[in-house]
Amino acid sequence: MTNHFAHLVRGSGPGLLLAHGGGGSVEGNFGGIIDELARTHTVVGPDYPGAGATPRATGPLDLDTVADELVAIAVDAGLERFAILGYSLGTGVAVRIATRHPERVTGLILTAGFTKPDNRLLLAVDIWRELLDGDRGLLAKFLTFAATGETYLNALTPAELEAAIDGLAEFIPAGSPEHVGLVASVDTRAELAGISVPALVIATTQDGLAPPAHSRELAAGIPGAELVEIEAGHGIGVEARDEWLGVIQKFLATTPSEGGN
Which of 9, 41, 57, 220 could bond 49 through an S-S bridge, CB–CB 3.0 to 4.6 Å? Predict the structure, then answer.
């Protein structure tokens, strides 16, 4: 993984680095809010191997290597310091960046994240991995069942539900096997107490993949972290886009961001 990941750079102002989820992409996880964030910040969004336009990895992914690569991309884009918005697996990447490159990070926003997968998440990862070898439609149904908030899911018409499952089946990135392998390996518990930058932890209260207990653990472990709970499933960018964007913008507006672009 010596080559830079494909990435987008949008906007101007203080730096904001995006760290997307496993089996996701920058556009897939943050697409609904990037334009708004780019009104006030220089947004840098790298895609992990096998997502977006980044070639798939030839072996397992390593959290340190992914973290270092994201930092290198941000610095190459002109950002000496930056806040990080991490989603799901991206919260582990964000915490590891703050641990390995503390001089670069001005703040952390950790959404629908976890410190270490519990048995529930490990089971989900195992099913996810096995279904990747077979029927993508069945995998999309499983992920929709596990991850979508009850309120949002049950408000869909049969046609909307079918379209959502079909869309997800088409979206599943080629690098998903490596992504979910990385999810299973994350353990940032010992690093949390050493984080000294402002942190906002956003819990998704109807999330079956990363339930709010995970986010509460993140917030309890990071000194001074703020915890906000939003009624949504794992797909917060679709289910509660405006509320998510609002708390992100509020945090960024009140967080020192010296050394931007």
Answer: 57
Distance CA 184, CA 178 (A): 10
CA–CA distance, 182 with 176 (Å, rounded to integer):
10
Q: Which residue has the tokens 């080629």?
A: 174
Euclidean distance between CA atoms 106 and 251, whole angstroms: 12
For the stretch 154-182, pLDDT in tens is 999 999 999 999 999 999 999 999 999 99
pTM: 0.96
Which SS3 state, helix, strand or coil, does residue 18 take?
A: strand
SS3 state at 85: strand
Residue bearing tokens 């961001």: 257
With b meaning 16 or more CB within 10 Å and e meaning fewer, what string describes 83-104? bbbbbbbbbbbbbbbbbebeeb
